[in-house]
## 1
Amino acid sequence: MKDARTIGVFDSGFGGLTVLRALVERMPQARFVFAGDTARLPYGSKSRRTVARYAAESAQFLVRAQGAESLVIACNTASALALDAIQDAVPVPVLGVIEPGAQAARAATATGDVLVMATDATVQSHAYRAACSGQGLRSLEKACPLLVPLVEEGWTEHAVTEEVVRIYLNELRGEAEAKGMLADTLVLGCTHYPLLRPVIERVIEQMPRDRSAIAMRVIDSAESTAEAAVRLFDADGRAQAGAAGAETEIRCFATDSVEKFERLGSRFLGRPVGKVELIDLGG
Ligand code: DGL
């Protein structure tokens, strides 16, 4: 596939494969290179400075060593804390997941009040609050630090996970109601949470409706990010012709735990990830 457009996709781990999946569906003729910084995951508990350094190194690998002509930062934490630093580190266009997520929230909400579940670092950055506010929305963000390890463990359909989700959502709904919000949309602001979507939707279904009795829509930014990537990186449609299929070229790189990436990654990508290559980006 010599003439294929090369798109780099980056995440702190393999959760970002949910974004890659949405990209492949829309641009099956592109060549994708994915880097998961599994050795240094989680980013969600780290400082801005550290996340920026790690993410810039991965971005440089994708551009310099793998020839990426554009980058999608699938990691919410890196998008929230380090989008500018990544853009400064590479000479190609860079797209994060926060703005597309806020746009999807605006399209979904009727009340204009939005809830966001994310990592600690993403919540502390208030990147979603800023992006939602830019869309004219009120938002309330909640850090849910236990969810990434549960997904990493493969406990996506587990009673413990369901209970943890219930506790977080009860707290979030309680805080929102105390602020007088009528939230009708929940943004999954972390790469790993789409894997918990069935559990999250089930818990929401079982919760008493708030005083306005409105239903809650769950959205993740993978789809809207992929749509934004098509508009920005494939305006001439070169990568879009044809259907998504096994022939789309995808190369995956990880900084650690290649076997785990190969084993669990298929759940995120929706098909086998193939042979994952080990890379060393430094400490
Ligand atoms: N990729 C991160 C995110 O979307 C979750 C995993 C981590 O904390 O590194 O925020």
## 2
Amino acid sequence: MVHFVGAGPGAADLITLRGAELLRHADVLIWAGSLVNPELLALAPAQCEVHDSARLTLEAVIALIERAEAAGKTTVRLHSGDTSLYGAIYEQAEALRVRGISFDVTPGVSSFSAAAAALGTEYTVPGVSQSLIITRAAGRTPVPEREALKSLAAHGASMALFLSAGLAEHVQRALLEGGAYTEDTPCAVVYKASWPEERVLHCSVKTLVSTLEEAGIQNSALILVGDFLEDAGERSRLYDPAFSTGYREASA
Ligand code: SAH
């Protein structure tokens, strides 16, 4: 049996209770060493066999899993953040299906959630934006043409850019070409959200490139864009006395 587990964004206590329990029973642990907190390895039993996937190909990962399966062992495949975003789960799941190896997936706290927590805010501010676009700039990994950053930027919605801190010039240009954000639209760079070395840098679309350059940040960071970063929202209907909900009659 293989358990894919989201490790959370960094802080070791942001893994889920279920994820931690699965780690405690792992015979084989394959972890994404570049972004997952090594403190989590301490949860695995002393005799657990540990492999850092940063050094492995997909084929090598699958070979380790096949070997573990043949020995009747339980494998935990630990990915950073949540398993549903930029984790290369898909190709592993396919390879396991083909081989008839059963697996399940335990989600984790994504870095985009930890970044909003670091900012003490939310992406969906009434009257400002009710949508979050999660995307990345095209780099060595291509992005489908219909999802080009320029076209996504035409919405002016809240945006979280993964894997793009090293592509700031491209990001800045595409954000402006979209036509909905301006040079003054607020941006934030959140580096290593929830880690002790977390940094939050506030800037604007205009100063995004210089901000990243001056901070020397190329990776392990999210670029957030949108007016949600400014305190310009309306109050929510959910807690408005004049608004009835399924649980509460309007009182004013
Ligand atoms: N599945 C992960 C994303 C993995 S892709 C998740 O849900 O968060 C790796 C990218 O995620 C990094 O390049 C960076 O853009 C972002 N990232 C991961 N952890 C981060 C953190 N703690 N703080 C900021 N960005 C992070």
